[in-house]
Amino acid sequence: MRYRGRYKKVHRILSRWHSAAFSKKYLLFTNLGISIGLSMLGDTMEQSYERYTEQIHGWDRTRTLRMGISGFTVGIVCHYWYHYLDYYYPKRTFGTVVRKILLDQCICSPLYISIFFLTMGLLEDNTWDEVADEIKDKAWTLYKAEWTVWPIAQMINFFFVAPKYRVLYDNTVSLGYDVFTSRVKYAKKRDPPNKVSSARALDIYNVYKSQNIPRPSPT
Questions:
Q1: Which has more pLDDT, 196 or 45?
Q2: What is the rounded CA–CA span in Å between residue 35 and residue 115?
Q3: What is the pTM of this model?
Q4: Helix (H, G, I), strand (E, B) or coil at 211
Q5: pLDDT over 90 (residue 104)
Q6: Nearest Cα to Cα of residue 119 among 10, 183, 50, 36
Q7: Given this model, what pLDDT does residue 192 score?
């Protein structure tokens, strides 16, 4: 009986917390907390893999924090985007769900990815040209990956999930995608093979010049 009483007490506390967290008053804050937390978790998982494979040698806390901040900005987008879709397309018919999926993939996904890179660029103090180059270099990879995951996931979301749980569902499914996003974001860009920098070429020239060695003719 004593354990049953404790169980009921815990159940009441969790029920009150759940009712408050997913109420209209606090739903935005709940969704932001979920988005921030899972973005940081995804990066932590990716860094754990990179440490295991010896790509990096320690946990970069600043990197994880930046991913969490990006979760805040894109979390705002997700919250209001789902609110917009459910307000203008409240039905759960097949045609309505397909329309929602197409809008989500063609409008929200590019916006989401762009805001992610803009946020990270600001946090890393990059120039606008550097941010634009990174978007050109990496955004298409993320966008292609979205088409392999989200159409089916969003069909389940729009058909079966209650509107107040959409961001929770989105971020739960997105945890694996967050790992992939972290990998793409922090992948090192390799130089093309056999490419010699101008500084290196100047060093080679100075060595030949100082030793009076005839320069090799270009081939």
A1: 45
A2: 14
A3: 0.75
A4: coil
A5: yes
A6: 36
A7: 45
Assigned token pair, 57: 């040698």
pLDDT per residue as tens digits for the range 51-60? 888 888 888 9
Looking at residue 3, what is its pLDDT?
A: 62
Triad 157, 76, 177: Cα angle to 5°? 55
Burial of 79 (0-12, 13-18, 19+ CB in 10 A): buried
Q: Which residue has the higher pLDDT, 10 or 68?
A: 68
Cβ neighbors of 179 (< 8 A, separation 6 or more) are: 42, 43, 45, 46, 49
Maximum CA pair distance of the chain? Answer: 96
Q: Tokens for 182? A: 């972290």
**Where do the domains of the chain lie?**
24-187
The amino acid sitting at 68 is: G
List of residues 6+ apart from 124 with CB closer than 8 A: 66
- Vertex 60: Cα angle to 133 and 197 (nearest 5): 40
CA distances from 66 to 57, 118, 136 (A): 19, 12, 21
110 burial level (CB within 10 Å; 0-12, 13-18, 19+): middle
Locate 74 and state its tokens: 């894109």
Question: Left (φ > 0), alpha (ψ -120 to 50) or beta: where does 91 sit?
Answer: beta
- The backbone region for 125, taken as left when phi is positive above 0, alpha when psi lies in -120 to 50, beta otherwise, is left
Rounded CA-CA distance 123/71 in Å is 13
